[in-house]
Write a structure and sequence with these properties.
The structure holds two protein chains of two kinds.
Chain A lengths: L4 H132 L9 H10 L1
Helix pairs in contact in A: 1-2
Chain B lengths: L8 H9 L3 E2 L6 E2 H23 L8 H20 L7 H17 L7 H10 L16 H33 L9 H38 L5 H35 L3
Antiparallel strand pairs in B: 1-2
Helix pairs in contact in B: 2-4, 3-4, 4-8, 6-7, 6-8, 7-8
The chains are: A mainly alpha, B mainly alpha.
Amino acid sequence: MDINATLIGQLVAFVVFVIFCMKFVWPPIVGAIETRQKTIADGLAASDRAAKDLELAQEKATAQLKEAKAQAAEIVEAAKKREAQIVEEAAEKAQAEKEKILAAGHAEIETERNQAKEELRQQVAVLAVAGAEKILERSIDAAAHSDILDKLVAEL
Amino acid sequence: MSSAAELTSQEYIRHHLANLTVGEGFWTVHLDSLGWSVFLGLLFLVIFRSVAKKATTGVPGKLQCAVEMIVDFVDDSVKSTFHGKNPLIAPLSLTIFVWVLLMNAMDWVPVDLLPHLIHWVSGIELSHIYMKPVPTTDPNITFALAFGVFFLVIYYSIKVKGIGGFIKELTTQPFGHWSLYPVNFILETVTMLARPLSLALRLFGNLYAGELIFLLIATIGLFQLPVHFLWAAFHLLVIPLQAFIFMMLTIVYLSLAHEDH
């Protein structure tokens, strides 16, 4: 156990090693560790944020879905109403048409009946004249008494 | 051991505790201690530098993970004790911890392995081979580390508190009266000097004792194997613990140097 120049050698080596470690070993390793720690912390924060965002988005989606459903129900309701309305309108229109057609038919029938009546009257007039001629024999001149016959026809 | 059978136990142990030396008197250099110490220090720096050079901030490889664990451990130890800002203390602590750990770990190399390897490779007589591969069992090595720390403590004491503040700290405590200042100075100086001394002797003592026990076990013959195993297993505690204590005390002393009273 004697102290000698080994101590000086070791001291020099110690100083050189520590300086080398301080300059070339410690900073890059600690730098890498700290950078990675920051990256991991950022990543964790980002994932937290993403989870929160997802929750928000889900809430929003649910709300939107609800709204859409309500809207759809509203639209269906309106469509049903409109359908009823259209059906009603169509029924009304058909009714009107039916009445119009009926009225037209009635009118035609009336006209035809009147016409037939007129024809009938004419023929009755003719028949009456013929009958009268037969009764009076030739004594009555059809031309001379036509005004009386016309009056008779008009009375029928 | 068998080849050293012609030696007595005492001679065997003495032979194993002798260093490979060059030079005379004070200018003697323990080639084995210094050589292994520098080799292990370079090993530490080469491995850590190679990791530092290709350190990725993404997913690290296994070696980078291991290195980062050690660096993080040292960084935590420094941050829990030293609260100032000093770019030197953390790398200094890392160097001390890993280097001392590696030097201590040489204790696990079987005591006769290296001499026999050298004998086998070079053919030199075993009795002429001196090889003490655990640098921390050499007081020169531990004192060099402790003195390095001691110089830094004095340097930072003066830098932080000024030369006046440093002298004031040495003289005005623990007793406040001016007449007791010389007593204070003696007490504080002893405290100051006790730090590197205890730092160096603790490490040296623990490892030297461990090495000595290994040598003693090596002299008991066939039954040395299980005993060697037990003693080596026990050093699983001693080796990292002593490295950790050396690092921790360095941090504590340096943080005391930064504290202004």
